Amino acid sequence: MLDIVPNGLQTARAAIRVDLQFIADLIRPGSRVLDIGCGDGALLEYLVNFKQVDGRGIELSQGGVNACVSHGLSVIQGDANTDLATYPSDAFDYVVLSQTLQATQEPARILADLVRIGRAAVVSFPNFGHWRVRWQLLARGRMPHTAALENDWYNTPNIHLCTITDFVDLARVLGTVIERAAILGPRGRTMPDWAAGSLGNLLGEQAVFVLRRRDK
Question: For the chain, how many structural domains are there in total?
């Protein structure tokens, strides 16, 4: 007799964005999760259905909020730039910010709020240090286009792009502990540990970090 549950889980996991797949694997079942900038709720829906989390979300766009609510998710309209200060400390086990940090007005303040609100903060972002980005700037002298950076310079939501090395430096300045880091290469494959450091900053298309406050 076939076990359909693992197949259903695998199918649902494959349907979400590659960095969200990695993030989903980090979340413990039954946890309290806040997904900031949750979009259409793909990650939240997966976590609620397959990991039985107590999931909440904040999304700026009304269309995203409507999509989430139509799937029965607890999501409110809000702006990470202004609304995180209202959340109490340690209100969630995990706070997730996926592919959004570079679009915030004050990334350092946002990171400080993430590790205050959550016992752990999970952050993913495109790596502006990837070799294709560097090559396009060098060879073409124009803002690059990659799978992780699809917009033109004049219509992009990204206002604070950074490299993996930049992000690590900011975490150190803030006194934030990096509990785990994963560098994702082509098609979302996790790069091996030997690719950390400057090599990972060159080859990684995006990165996922798990952070916490130093006093936890």
Answer: 1
